[in-house]
Write a structure and sequence with these properties.
Helices cover 34% and strands 8% of the residues. By secondary structure, it is α/β, with parallel strands linked by helices. The N terminus and C terminus are likely disordered.
Length: 499
């Protein structure tokens, strides 16, 4: 065991103190102290995977691991640990509270073995199967009923067949539900007809009826890219048209309907009217929505709304101005590639210090962001802005990049397809803004060939600053979801007795 512990000074001190405690003996007066030392040392091992080896050391160790549920409460395997997953879950049994397989989704799962193990895990509260393929729940009515009674969080994104069982899995304790695709990039590679019946009819009515306490609902749709006949009759579109059924969710804080093509103004208006606690809403690429939907959001959610993504939509300048004027608490405002917007909406937003004064994320890609707008952003959002989207800008030059480099909190920059900047300008941006950790500069149209030295400097700078659009989801989370998460096996609840 001592060889397995981290080779740090503090770990060695713990080990020596523990050995000294064992020399005292295991009398009733000091048994609790010995157990505390054991718990302090076992934190360096990965539970519950190491449980069998630990229990074999001695009776004291076996007792410690058996009667402390924290050791068995959380299972988040790596792909290498998947072959032993079924056995581990059987050992955890009713003590298991969290099962997250998303990090091991690339591994091959035995769905039947997983179902058998889940039957033994009564009391499971968090289940994340995102990207894991399909778990065979046909004929498992008792398991579905048990999960519906206990689950507080369920994620089945990317599990096309499993999503058909969602009405049987939603229950009164559910607080977080995620379904739909796993990521937008993956969804564009799929055949929409394979997804056409992924969401069962009546899903949203079932959610509203059986899970009234839901706080986070993420059901991104399918981005229909054309080339398919009879798209209007796809079942998934009919499902989204009934989204107004979730108006019963009075506790709803976050709603993600990204690319829910088929959703209409009437549904969004009903949600905005009835779900008055909404702080975050994602309507990216919901292209059938028009100004009345956005006006309803501005009217009913102005006191609560903090994050909104309406990129790739068709709202007018007037509707977006109404939103910015009403919702003064916004921290996220993503307007990228809105077909009816341009520099005028930027002039409106930057020209009034009272409009959205605390933005952390501003998306204006496709709106022809220029040097003048860069100066306005640098003035107004110097103390708050962390993420900026300015892709497809024709008027932005190296001078504008210098201004953006002066934003001390800027961490992410989407700057693809810029037409008037140079390689040297991007190099200086990377060097002047060391806090800028993520940059997308793909497909920029550089006017002159690059010397090999400049090309190497730029490539090195960008390789160190990879950008993922999927990561942007975290910026629209309800704040409670951004709090530090409890470590594996519930160690945050174990107070170390050793100084």
């Amino acid at each position: 065991f001592l060889k397995a512990a981290p080779r740090t000074h503090s770990a060695q001190i713990r080990a020596m103190k523990y050995v000294k405690a064992l020399d005292v003996g295991s009398t009733p007066a000091n048994l609790l102290t010995v157990e505390q030392y054991v718990l302090s040392l076992l934190r360096w091992l990965q539970f519950p995977w190491a449980s069998a080896r630990v229990a074999a050391v001695c009776r004291t160790w076996h007792t410690c691991t058996s009667r402390h549920g924290e050791f068995w409460a959380r299972v988040i395997p790596t792909p290498e640990q998947v072959p032993a997953l079924s056995v581990v879950l059987q050992r955890c049994g009713s003590r298991l509270r969290t099962l997250d397989l998303s990090a091991a989704s690339s591994a091959s799962f035995d769905g039947d073995s997983l179902v058998r193990a889940l039957r033994a895990c009564q009391g499971l509260e968090v289940l994340n199967l995102a990207g894991c393929g399909d778990v065979p729940l046909e004929g498992e009515a008792d398991l579905c009923t048990a999960l519906a009674r206990s689950l507080r969080s369920l994620n089945v994104r990317g599990c096309r067949q499993l999503q058909r069982h969602l009405p049987k899995l939603v229950g009164p304790r559910l607080r977080v539900l995620e379904a739909g695709w796993q990521s937008e990039f993956n969804a564009t590679q799929e055949d929409p007809h394979e997804w056409s019946d992924a969401l069962p009819r009546g899903l949203f009515a079932s959610i509203g009826r059986h899970s009234p306490s839901i706080e986070t609902l993420r059901v991104p749709g399918y981005l229909l890219v054309g080339g398919y006949d009879d798209q209007d009759n796809l079942s998934i579109k009919a499902s989204y048209r009934s989204i107004s059924e979730i108006g019963k969710l009075s506790q709803l804080r976050r709603l993600d309907l990204c690319c829910a093509m088929g959703i209409l103004d009437s549904a969004v208006m009903a949600v905005a009217r009835d779900c008055r606690r909404l702080r975050s809403i994602n309507l990216r690429c919901c292209q059938l929505l028009t100004d009345p939907a956005l006006r309803a959001i501005a009217e009913h959610l102005q006191e609560e709304l903090v994050h909104i993504n309406i990129s790739c939509c068709n709202f007018s300048d007037a509707a977006v101005q109404r939103l910015a004027s009403s919702c003064r608490l916004l921290k996220t405002l993503d307007l990228c590639y809105c077909s009816k917007l341009g520099p005028a909406i930027l002039a409106f937003l930057l020209g009034d210090a009272t409009l959205c004064p605390v933005l952390r994320m501003l998306g204006v890609g496709g709106l022809d962001f220029g040097d003048e707008e860069a100066a306005g952003v640098a003035r107004k959002y110097r103390d708050t802005l962390e993420h900026l989207g300015i892709g497809s800008s024709r008027r932005l030059t190296d001078a504008g990049l210098v201004l953006l480099a002066g934003l001390p909190r800027l961490r992410k920059l989407s700057a693809h397809r810029l037409e008037s900047v140079s390689r040297l300008g991007l190099i200086e941006l990377c060097e002047r803004a060391p806090g800028l950790r993520h940059i997308d500069a793909e497909e920029c149209a550089f006017a002159l060939p690059a010397p090999s030295e400049d090309q190497h400097r730029l490539s090195s700078g960008l390789e160190e600053r990879t950008y993922s659009y999927d990561d942007s989801d975290s910026e629209t989370d309800v704040e409670i979801e951004l709090e530090p998460q409890e470590p594996l096996s519930g160690w945050a609840r174990l107070a170390s007795p050793i100084a």
